[in-house]
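notes to self, project folder thing:

trying the whole complex as one job this time. last attempt i did each chain seperately and stitching them together was a nightmare. four parts in total, labels are on each line so i dont mix them up again. if this works i'll redo the older ones the same way
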Amino acid sequence: MSSIREVAKLAGVSPATVSRVMNGTANVVPEKRERVLAAIAQTDFVPNEVARTLFKKSAKTIGLIIPSIRNPYFTQLADFLDALAEQNGYRLSLYNVGRDPEKQRAAIQMLVAANADGVIYAAETDVLHESLKSCPIPVVALDTRLSGEYAQACIYADYYQGARLAMEHLLDCGCKSIVCIKGPQQVYSARCRYEAYRDVCCERGLAEQTVTCEYDFGEGLAVTETLLERFPAVDGILACNDIVAISAYKVLHQRKIAVPQQIQLVGFDDIDLSTLLSPELTTVRQPLREMAEKAMEQLIRRDNETEMKKEFMFPVVLIQRETTKRRGTEQ
Amino acid sequence: MSSIREVAKLAGVSPATVSRVMNGTANVVPEKRERVLAAIAQTDFVPNEVARTLFKKSAKTIGLIIPSIRNPYFTQLADFLDALAEQNGYRLSLYNVGRDPEKQRAAIQMLVAANADGVIYAAETDVLHESLKSCPIPVVALDTRLSGEYAQACIYADYYQGARLAMEHLLDCGCKSIVCIKGPQQVYSARCRYEAYRDVCCERGLAEQTVTCEYDFGEGLAVTETLLERFPAVDGILACNDIVAISAYKVLHQRKIAVPQQIQLVGFDDIDLSTLLSPELTTVRQPLREMAEKAMEQLIRRDNETEMKKEFMFPVVLIQRETTKRRGTEQ
DNA sequence: CATACATATGAAACGGGTTTCAAACATTGA
DNA sequence: TCAATGTTTGAAACCCGTTTCATATGTATG
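result (full assembly):
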């Protein structure tokens, strides 16, 4: 409630001096410093961050734009980023925008209007709003790939390779009829994964068998039902992420279809939950923490940066667990 | 980048007129209005929310303080609250504080300094910081109970009754040796649940058998191992929440202990995940959406409020699914 | 046509920390 | 002792959208 001017009056100094004491921006004679500190303590003075932000034109805030706060993948990402932001003296501000372009536009605009210092863009729509192009604060794409005019850096994993690894693993494990549950095709990672599936099918002379699904438990269940009806011979499922894989497992279990004996299953992302499923989920892991670190670094330590567009692709690794048959030594 | 003064100059009017056009706070002659709108469009002007907040002393923001963004229970809550805030023209600002009192204090202070309009407090520690008492913005406790000097309203569910229902259900289903996995005892809901367990044990002349666990997958696994060692005769588990229940199931499954045939299991909260487990989790549901609505309402529509302390206890309901044996008609 | 009243509009103050600038004071060296 | 350099400090400007207040213009009534 109290302002710096009240504190100043109480301490018998100018507001400028109080500011200098608080921020250590200049020397203040010890005797006055003491008086100021006493006045601050006495009035429970908390400097108004809004006024500070207005002048400094920096809210010390990084915005994170994600499609869903209910999706554990993004929640895990947000947790990493939150910790990293805090370590660097920033706040993370979450924007939950679904796949609604209008909400995305609004989020960016709000961040700009709030003097945020950067945006990590982890959502995706088919229409990328112009507001990203002319965005006066730096934008880093995470878990997706945007062209240079939209983002100053892109951080993503080798989704294509991930799906290849998964496909080859399913084939190694003896699958003859693999169905791909495609993710939303406006999502970069989902497109890459599907492309790998398609390419492997093509190389091996297999027929493409796909269904499409949003990243959502409910839809995952429904789509799996459809899948079983449309492709009764299925013996392998490549799911677009772990959420959908877990939903698929649920349906298989209900139908008393044994996993991995009758149908083998691979997910993507290696979310915490994937080891909690029984049987544990075979999945493709991306180095989420390292990707989060890179994203934050691109926004915060942009000192000696070359102006060129930066792309960072991280390697993925297949984590064999219990929804596929073991291969190799333990066969 | 452009300011209201630049827009004003371009339109040949004063900043006040631009402000009036943007906010519709006063009549502006159509011809000038047009010029202003044109100038806004031409300069891509976005009003600086920070300056607005500074003057209005309101950021149109509600803070939400939660212990963990990784816990789906809080994530679901945040999702509801986010939607509600938006509907009412507010932003939700998330603070992930764990059980660290210092982080909680910092979160409250930051919200005050940012001119937030209210706080929903859903975290909990053993030390409640003084900063809550003298907090100049309204605080509502959600999923917990604070004394009147700390919060202007408390919204929680009948946790005690929930645990009683769960216990009675387990007993009805034939359990003779029920172990309670207690949650962190500084958490109100965890205390209530334990008390109900204790009371039922007492009433029925059963020995108390408890272990304690944080709300965390990893700890849930470890604690379940301990439990099986300490209480080998266990045939029923009352878990402090669904996360822990799911962890417990995982261990039981690994050990080839049949659920519900050998051990029956009840969780709490009915998170989305609980139907995704196979078998589906029997749990106690609280009306989360309604509770979120009540919390938001208490902060936003506090017009004709009586100054008295408000407590709202919501009813809970037992959701019988597959981790307990059916009773009643389907026995 | 003059008085009264409503409407439109800009200048200026405001909110509250921060920073610049210059004045005031202290210290060092000649 | 005086000039020169360094240090401390407060007044005032600044960030920028909003609002007040007074002026100016227009309309309605007598």
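what i see at first glance: Chain A touches chain B at residues 1, 44, 46-51, 53-54, 59, 69-70, 72, 75-76, 78-79, 82, 91, 93-94, 96, 109-110, 112-115, 134, 136, 217, 246-247, 249-250, 253-254, 272-273, 276, 278 (CB under 8 Å).
need to look closer tmrw
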